[in-house]
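Morning F.,

Quick status update on the modeling queue. The single chain you submitted on Monday has been processed. Sequence for confirmation:
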Amino acid sequence: MRLLALSALIATALCACSPSTPEAPVSSATTPAPTAAPAPAAEAKPAEAAPAVAKEIPEGACGDQSALPADQRVANTARWTTASEQDNFGFDVFRSDSEHGEFAKLNKEPILGAGTSDETHKYEYRDDTIDPCHEYWYYVEGISTNGHREKFTPTFRAPPKRRAVGSAAPATTPAAEPGVPAQE
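Structure tokens below.
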């Protein structure tokens, strides 16, 4: 499938490693993941893994956030970039509670792609339906204009954003594994 042009570059990041609450705005920085190559002739090259620093996980409320206004919910935001696109209709974002678990599609409608373009395009999906005390796994699937679907990004982890008040859970997140976005 020729979903994207040969030089497609993916910078997948999970910026929701920072809560999107008024007191902690979402960072616009991204951490590169391994370069994916959806086009058959493209070559996959792993990105240089930046050293990850352990970060303290704050205590806070866990569970369903649906009673909160959307702008006050803690969220995971997946971001990815294409260097160019070929016959790209769009993308779907999938989430699971475990790396090898059953993944469910999150977006109701595809995130529209740029069709065929030699320009760089940036995309994102904000998932505010999470429990801030749980880790999640995500990947992005590309959809071509002829309806063919293909996994576009590697599966990536979003660590917990909070720990339950009074819990004995670890106070820091582990350093990211090579090729996995680091926590911001």
